[in-house]
Write a structure and sequence with these properties.
The chain is of the alpha/beta class and about 300 residues long. The strands form three sheets. It has a seven-stranded mixed beta sheet, with helices on both faces. A two-stranded antiparallel ribbon has the order 1-2. Strands 3-4 form a two-stranded antiparallel ribbon. Helix 1 packs across helix 2, helix 1 runs parallel beside helix 4 and helix 6 runs parallel beside helix 7.
Length: about 300
């Protein structure tokens, strides 16, 4: 037998020795997750006794983290926008900056949703993080999460079931728009946008554990945006919008791609690190000034 406090202190020391910047936080999150304890229970539970089976589980998890496997990969789940989401091998681990994309869409959609049934398409859904957060925030909405990975779609469907959103969510295996039917009020995507030549320089936690299909955006990082810009108009309602997460240096390039396909930029928003992160477009046939007013977007936004 040992105590929770000793286990956390030992993990923290080993993580710190390995050069992990957030050693204390990671130790608490990892061990709390393994033992199904809240952050408060971990923080105040130094004297809690841990049995031999739990000690072995912690030792295995710490060893995996020291090999640079991310904490939430080890736990098999991560919180996103207040939702507890399962992870799997072929799903990208959702990041806090993607919550900015969700919040940007919710801010706008709530301006006109009311009791109207909104249809959402999430391209490259992965865990389902984006669309499930949107469905959670928009009770009248329904949506499709598409992906090329059967593993990812299985995970997204299970997340929808666990969250009680499965009646409003459909998983569709599709390469971009190939197997998509219908018209949508919101098309959203956090596509792969990292340049191929940058991949080898990514942190091991990303390079070795996130699925490459969710990272590699091609030679210039823009392959996915070209695909979406080329066909989104076919599936977008007249007053609908396309909302995208982008790389920190891609605002102008992505905007040019969409403008060339007949879209206008409605909104641009930065992430928590003050990097460009979200772009929202509408069809150019829409009066952009009226659309911004309708959605409550300030004239100077974007």
């Amino acid at each position: 037998m040992t105590t929770l406090g000793k286990a956390v202190a030992d993990a923290r020391a080993r993580f710190s020795a390995a050069g992990f910047a957030d050693a204390a936080i990671e130790a608490r999150i990892l061990i709390g997750g393994l033992l199904e304890l809240s952050s408060t229970e971990v923080f105040v539970g130094d004297d809690r006794e841990i049995d031999a089976a739990s000690v072995a589980k912690i030792e295995d998890a710490v060893a995996r983290r020291l090999k640079r496997e991310p904490v939430h990969r080890i736990l098999g789940k991560r919180e996103f926008h207040g939702l507890d989401l399962l992870l799997s091998k072929e799903t990208l681990e959702p990041r806090p900056d993607t919550e900015v994309l969700v919040d940007s869409i919710l801010d706008e959609a709530r301006q006109f949703a009311g009791d109207r049934s909104i249809r959402i398409l999430d391209i490259g859904t992965g865990t389902g993080a984006i669309i499930l957060a949107l469905l959670d925030g928009l009770p009248s909405a329904t949506g499709i999460g598409s992906d090329i990975s059967a593993d990812a779609l299985k995970t997204a469907a299970e997340n929808a079931r666990r969250l009680g959103l499965d009646q409003r969510f459909q998983a569709v295996e599709s390469h971009w728009f190939d197997k998509i039917d219908g018209c949508f009020d919101i098309i959203v995507s956090n596509p792969p946008y990292i340049r191929s030549d940058v991949i080898p320089d990514l942190d091991p936690e990303v390079r070795n554990f996130d699925p490459m299909a969710a990272l590699d955006g091609g030679a210039d990082g823009l392959t996915a945006y070209r695909e979406i810009a080329d066909r989104a108009g076919e599936f977008l309602a007249a007053d609908g919008c396309v909302a995208l997460e982008i790389g920190f240096d891609q605002k102008h390039a992505v905007t040019e791609l969409f403008e060339a396909e007949g879209f206008n930029l409605l909104l641009a928003r930065k992430d928590y690190g003050e990097n460009d992160r979200v772009l929202i477009f509408a069809k150019s046939v829409v009066d952009v000034a009226k659309q911004k007013k309708k959605l409550g977007i300030p004239k100077e936004a974007g």
